[in-house]
Design brief:
single chain; 207 residues; mainly alpha; Arc Repressor Mutant, subunit A; Tetracycline Repressor, domain 2; 11 helices; globular; TetR family transcriptional regulator
Length: 207
């Protein structure tokens, strides 16, 4: 299937396709997804899905990109050093409340190769710059690695609910309550400890 063909826009049709595609890809991945199911769920002709996006793989990439767009819209960057812990919690709350993005990223790791062309600097670079500013640390490479640790704290529990259930001996119906309650408090405490320790080391390096 060649690239997308220009078609007259139908109000809301692209967003309906992306919503349906996100649900389908999150459930069964790229290989297991069916474009006809996505089209049916979106209430649109299958050929129009191809007209908008060109291929199933391109639609998967668009669904991931839309997930990051929603994350950027819902989770503003930290407002200075004092906001970094709350920023980590906002990321955590987003992933707990929007598990589809985490699932898409897991499928992406399994089914899409690591290519330079798939990098998303438009999303990540701004976030890393915010960590650099918030921590007052000019060692950008070090801060990049720290940001990965904080993002992992925020995203991992929601993306790995089976492991959370196993480790905590929680039943499947109570995992969401755990994530929204005591696990959230634990993430806040861990993020605060990491950031405080980092600030101390950063200050020592500057002296």
């Amino acid at each position: 299937m060649s690239g997308p063909v220009s078609q007259p826009a139908e109000p809301g049709s692209r967003s309906r396709i992306l919503r349906a595609a996100t649900a389908e890809f999150a459930r069964v991945g790229l290989a297991g997804a069916r474009v006809d199911r996505i089209a049916d769920d979106a209430g649109i002709n299958k050929q129009r899905v191809y007209a908008y996006f060109g291929s199933k793989a391109a639609l998967f990439d668009a669904a991931v990109a839309e997930g990051f767009r929603q994350l950027r819209a819902d989770v503003p960057i930290a407002d200075g050093p004092g906001d970094l812990v709350d920023y980590a919690l906002r990321l955590y709350d987003f992933h707990v409340g929007n598990p589809a993005l985490s699932r898409l990223l897991l499928w992406e790791q399994l089914e899409r190769p690591l290519l330079d062309s798939t990098k998303r600097p438009d999303h990540h670079d701004g976030r890393v710059a915010d960590y650099v500013k918030g921590l007052g640390d000019n060692d950008t490479d070090d801060v990049v690695r720290l940001s990965l640790v904080l993002v992992s704290m925020a995203a991992w529990p929601a993306a790995n609910r089976q492991v959370v259930m196993d480790v905590t001996a929680t039943d499947s119906r109570s995992v969401q309550d755990l994530l929204e309650g005591s696990m959230r408090e634990t993430v806040a405490n861990a993020a605060r400890a990491v950031i405080d320790e980092w600030r101390g080391r950063s200050g020592a390096r500057r002296e």
